[in-house]
């Protein structure tokens, strides 16, 4: 059975699609209610295909697709009410495999996704080991090593560091790091990110100096 993530903020659409897909035996559907939750799920799980709405709270579908394409070739399908030609073209430019406009036929949606899955022969890809300087991250083991020695990181700090290693030299906003590590927890403030990064710098010793503060923006891992 194929694993598909649907990132869609409309509860009625999620319910209707979930009901239809649930009565068939080839696609296991998982949901995310907004872009931030979607990002958290994508970073912590493997999917055979991802379906994205575009206009939704938190990260929008376009931004989410950009992040996905930096780390994966998993098939991406937009499911959206944005019908302008420039939006469709931009979606394909970002690397989408299909662009489906609302309103849509659920039966056709199911058939399109299944055909794409079978054509691409999608299988969960074993996560690769990340290495940068003296830092090594093994996502399968949820393990971080510094100069060959395992260091103990809480899950949130692990997610922040992993995202930084996956995006070296790129400005990363505090808002994005909140989405990466906390997903849909609306009660976490950006100040918490600063404290977590401070802890990371200490634990990484000299490697911690590679985490640069960008005033008014967030951080960059050099």
Can you name the CATH architecture of the largest domain?
A: 3-Layer(aba) Sandwich
How many strands? 12
Order of helices and strands: EHEHEHEHEHEEEEHEHHEE
Mean pLDDT: 89
Number of domains: 2
Give an overview of the whole structure:
With 222 residues, the chain is of the alpha/beta class. The chain folds into two domains: 2-120, Rossmann fold (3-Layer(aba) Sandwich); 130-221, Arc Repressor Mutant, subunit A, CATH 1.10.10.10. The chain contains eight helices and twelve strands. The strands form three sheets. Strands 2-1-3-4-5 form a five-stranded parallel beta sheet, with helices on both faces. Strand 8 and strand 9 (149-151) form a beta hairpin. Helix 2 (35-44) crosses helix 7, helix 6 packs across helix 7 (174-182) and helix 6 packs across helix 8 (190-203). The longest helix is centred in the middle third of the chain and has 15 residues, at 106-120. The chain is elongated, with a radius of gyration of 19 Å. The mean pLDDT is 89.
């Amino acid at each position: 059975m194929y694993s598909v993530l649907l990132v869609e903020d409309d509860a009625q659409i999620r319910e209707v699609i979930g009901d239809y897909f649930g009565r068939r035996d080839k696609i296991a559907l998982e949901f995310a209610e907004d872009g931030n939750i979607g990002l958290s799920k994508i970073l912590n799980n493997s999917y055979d295909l991802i379906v994205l709405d575009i206009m939704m709270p938190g990260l929008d579908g376009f931004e989410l697709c950009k992040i996905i394409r930096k780390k994966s070739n998993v098939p991406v399908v937009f499911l959206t009410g944005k019908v302008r030609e420039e939006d469709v073209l931009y979606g394909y430019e970002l690397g989408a495999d299909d662009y489906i406009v609302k309103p849509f036929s659920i039966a056709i949606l199911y058939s399109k996704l299944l055909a794409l899955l079978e054509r691409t022969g999608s299988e969960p890809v074993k996560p690769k080991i990340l290495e940068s300087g003296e830092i090594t991250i093994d996502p399968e083991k949820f393990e971080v090593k510094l100069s060959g020695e395992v260091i103990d990181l809480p899950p949130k700090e692990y997610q922040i560091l992993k995202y930084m290693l996956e995006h070296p030299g790129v400005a990363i906003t505090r808002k994005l790091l909140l989405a990466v590590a906390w997903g849909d927890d609306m009660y976490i403030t950006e100040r918490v990110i600063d404290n977590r990064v401070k802890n990371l710098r200490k634990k990484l010793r000299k490697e911690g100096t590679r985490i640069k503060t960008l005033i008014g923006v967030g951080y960059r891992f050099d």
